[in-house]
Structure formats: structure tokens, C-alpha cells
Amino acid sequence: MLAVPWIFTILTLLLCADASPRRSTADCAMDSIKIKGGSYSLTSMSPSRVVKYTCPQGMYPYPVQSQKCDRYGRWSPLRTPTGGTAREVVCKWISCPDPSRLEHGSVEPMLGENLVGNSTSNTCFEGYQLRGSPTRTCQPNGKWSGETPICDNGSEHCPNPGTPPGSRRSGDRFGIDDKVTYWCDRGLFMFGSAERVCQENHEWTGTEPACYCECRLHRMPSLINIYHSKSAQKRCSSPMVIHTYYAFTLVYHSMP
Ligand SMILES: *[C@@H]1O[C@H](CO)[C@@H](O)[C@H](O)[C@H]1NC(C)=O
Ligand SMILES: *[C@@H]1O[C@H](CO)[C@@H](O)[C@H](O)[C@H]1NC(C)=O
């Protein structure tokens, strides 16, 4: 009677020992882990180590937000957006695209850099009405608050389609079938329509383009590839998508 539980226990132990994987998982060394201007935390011990980097407000960890230890004891590489490898992680300032191009109006002050918290005010010259936001503030997600300011006098068939921050426009006639073309400042990616045509119904085809920095801020696995792949840009035509990418600031954790 007493022997039965014993046999059971031994059997269980044998079965369990056999079932548990016996691969050797080496832990990555912590001495190579550092971030200039920020802090890090070890967020997971099992099955492997993950280090998360944190920067002060208004900054982001570059080129990666975290590093993962592989099973051979190597940290994931510090891949830069251009495909290179960085030597170390640094905190960089988050900036918004250049807001200073306003036709028939002025933007003040002229900021050298457009950092988080910086604001601009937009005023239109005499005879033009402002559409969009009179003031805009650079937000921690790298976007300006409010709407693109546009100065218009209503004299054309379609309203002035504006020049969103970080973009340039060619085409300044807004009659039926007139076309405007946009491109982004160096280093920025376009979401929305690069080309818009004035239609009979007084509306432009497509959606207002937006130009954003290719900072690796937001490592949401399913989205990051879309964001970084040039060929996939056309698929990201909705500005709503950008909201999702830029949700990164809320993901940050502080050091315990
Ligand atoms: C822009 O923001 C930075 C960082 O907060 C600040 O140091 C700078 O003075 C601001 N510039 C202006 C013109 O407000
Ligand atoms: C309206 O603005 C356009 C340029 O956008 C200008 O050519 C035109 O003369 C203006 N019309 C009036 C009535 O001010």
C-alpha cells in the first residue's frame, strides 16, 4: 500500500526530468549595456533577458528602445534606421517637422529646432483668412498639435491645400483639374497623398500629406516593419496610422 505513492513520485520525477529541455541558455553580459543620457532596466529574466532603455522627457533612445538576449548569450544588434550598426545607445531629442512654410502668412518665432514643448503662432496677411490652428505645440509624439494652418482668400475653385510641416509643394493654381505635388524634407517619410487634384465639387482628391521623422521610437513589432519599409508607405495612407506609431511615449518605464 505504501509503495504505490513512492513509485508514482519516482515515475513523475523521471518523466518530468526527461521532458524538461536541456539546452544551455547563456545569459548575456550586462557590462556592455549602457545608455548615454538615460537609464535602463532589466524587464525579463525568463526565458531570456530583455533590457529596456529610458530617456528623460522630450527624448528617445536611439537607435533602439530595447535589446534582447539570444540563446547564445548575444544581445540583439543596435541597428540604425539606415541599416548600419551603432556602437552605443544614446538619448536623442524628439523634434517635430519644420512648421515654417505658410503661404500668405507668417509663423513666429522662427525656431532653429522644433523640440517638444516649443510652440509657434500663425497669422495670415491682410485679405486672407486662417484655416487650421493659430498656435501649435510640438508634442512628445513628434507631431504638432492641432491642424495645418492655411491662409486663403477664397478666390479659387478649390481651397488652398496648404503646405504641412516638413513638406514642400509645387503647384499654386487651384482651379478644376489643377494638380499639386508634395515632397518631404530630407530624412522624413510621407504619409497621405503626394499628389492631389482639384475636383469639380471644390474638394481635393486624396488626403493631406504628413511628413514624419524616421526615428525608431515605436517598436510595436507588427507596425515597425511597415513604418520602415519604403515600399509599404503607400499602404500607410491614413494619418490615423501615425497615431498608433507615435504611441511610444506611453510605453516607457522608469527605473525601479
Ligand atoms: C524649445 O524647447 C527647448 C527644449 O525645451 C528649449 O530649451 C528652448 O528654449 C525652446 N525654444 C524656444 C524658442 O522656445
Ligand atoms: C487672392 O489670392 C490670390 C493668391 O492666392 C491672388 O492672386 C488674388 O489676387 C487674391 N484675390 C483677392 C480678391 O484678394
Automatic annotation (TrEMBL):
<feature type="disulfide bond">
    <location>
        <begin position="184"/>
        <end position="211"/>
    </location>
</feature>
<dbReference type="GO" id="GO:0009617">
    <property type="term" value="P:response to bacterium"/>
</dbReference>
<keyword id="KW-0325">Glycoprotein</keyword>
<feature type="domain" description="Sushi">
    <location>
        <begin position="94"/>
        <end position="153"/>
    </location>
</feature>
<dbReference type="GO" id="GO:0006956">
    <property type="term" value="P:complement activation"/>
</dbReference>
<keyword id="KW-1015">Disulfide bond</keyword>
<keyword id="KW-0677">Repeat</keyword>
<protein>
    <submittedName>
        <fullName>Complement factor B-like</fullName>
    </submittedName>
</protein>
<dbReference type="GO" id="GO:0070062">
    <property type="term" value="C:extracellular exosome"/>
</dbReference>
<keyword id="KW-0732">Signal</keyword>
<dbReference type="InterPro" id="IPR000436">
    <property type="entry name" value="Sushi_SCR_CCP_dom"/>
</dbReference>
<dbReference type="InterPro" id="IPR035976">
    <property type="entry name" value="Sushi/SCR/CCP_sf"/>
</dbReference>
<dbReference type="Pfam" id="PF00084">
    <property type="entry name" value="Sushi"/>
</dbReference>
<keyword id="KW-0768">Sushi</keyword>
<feature type="disulfide bond">
    <location>
        <begin position="124"/>
        <end position="151"/>
    </location>
</feature>
<feature type="domain" description="Sushi">
    <location>
        <begin position="156"/>
        <end position="213"/>
    </location>
</feature>
<feature type="signal peptide">
    <location>
        <begin position="1"/>
        <end position="19"/>
    </location>
</feature>
